[in-house]
Amino acid sequence: MREIIMSAMRPTGKLHLGHYLGVIQNWVKLQDKYECYFGVADWHALTTKYDNTENLRQDCREVIMDWLASGIDPDKSVLYIQSLIPEIAELNIYLGMITPESWVEKDPTLKDMVKILREKESNAQQLNYGLLGYPVLMSADIMIFNADAIPVGIDQVAHIEITRDIAKRFNNLYKTDFFKEAKPLLNNCSLICGLDGNKMGKSFNNDIKISDTEEITAKKIMTAITDRSRIKKTDLGHPDECEVAFKYWQIFGDEHDISVVRNECEQGLRGCADCKRQLGCIINEKFKSIRERRKYYEENPEIVDEIIKSGTAKARIKAQQVLSKVRDLIGMY
Ligand code: SF4
């Protein structure tokens, strides 16, 4: 039997290249080896955006379409929407009852989110009960499939520690070994910065979307930061100090491309504008088939509906099995 992995994303709308390189590419590989459950965490979106739900449903669909276009195969992986699995909410109640408050307070994900909200003074009053329960809900997301492993980056290992602690506590309290302690499955994906050199993010307006057109991609790439010391094309360049464009070359170019760009830049034979134009073409080529597939799903919404419906139904079967065992172990009526 294959090991189970579970992972989820918040419905942030159309995904960007950071999501593709840092998460989705890895999922595509994992689906050949594991029983995979990939969810759109729309309840988690409500922990901070409960007053801004106008686009929530469409944002969930955008995420699913980006996954499908990028190669997540609904015949290999189970794709679902979190809020369509009520079993997660019930498990969240049981786990909430056995989780000491101090564990929740020290959870790094929650600490980060509270910090961000507090920094925005106007949002200080928005720290709500649902947000404080975030670490337990995340644990319910994982434990509802009794997952063996969670794909994470090295900086996220501590974020699933609470889930392992809650699983251990459940097993101790109810004298069972039912719940597995989900282990982190480290990925070594490429990290890509935004066009301005900061973390890539929709809200920073520095991203390239998976679904951007070739024209938009070409236009955006022209804003990428280069070697700030260069003024003229003939100035000798320093690719390692080219803050964004050369980093993108190292991600998207092949060995030959990278070496040509480096040499021509260092010798003052390559202008930054031409260099970025060429880079835009390389990125567009890489995402050509993904964008064609995405267009197909955009034009065929009934296929997306069916994938969500059947994935959610499969996820619920597994969730119901786990929940039934949990109720039994606790001694619920
Ligand atoms: Fe960067 Fe290319 Fe300009 Fe060199 S020529 S600084 S690699 S954009």
Strand content: 5-15%
Overall spatial form: elongated
> Radius of gyration, rounded?
22 Å
Helix content: 40-55%
Low-confidence stretches: none
Bound chemical compounds: iron/sulfur cluster
Summed up, the domain count is: 2
Total number of beta strands = 5
Give the rounded overall mean pLDDT: 93
Instruction: Indicate the CATH topology of the largest domain.
Output: Rossmann fold
What is the terminal separation in angstroms?
A: 32 Å
Overview of the molecule:
With about 325 residues, the chain is mostly helical. The protein folds into two domains: about 5-195 and about 300-330, Rossmann fold; about 210-285, Tyrosyl-Transfer RNA Synthetase, CATH 1.10.240.10. The chain has 15 helices and five strands. It has helices spanning about 15-30, 40-50, 55-70, 85-100, 100-105, 110-120, 130, 135-145, 160-175, 215-220, 245-250, 255-265, 270-285, 290-300, 300-330, and strands at about 5-10, 35-40, 75-80, 150, 185. The strands form two sheets. It has a three-stranded parallel β-sheet. It has a two-stranded parallel ribbon with strand order 4-5. β1 (about 5-10), α1 and β2 form a beta-alpha-beta unit. α4 packs parallel to α15. The longest helix has 30 residues, at about 300-330. The chain is elongated and about 80 Å long. The model has no long low-confidence stretch (mean pLDDT about 95). Iron/sulfur cluster (SF4) binds next to α11, α12 and α13. Iron/sulfur cluster binds near residues 227, 237 and 246.
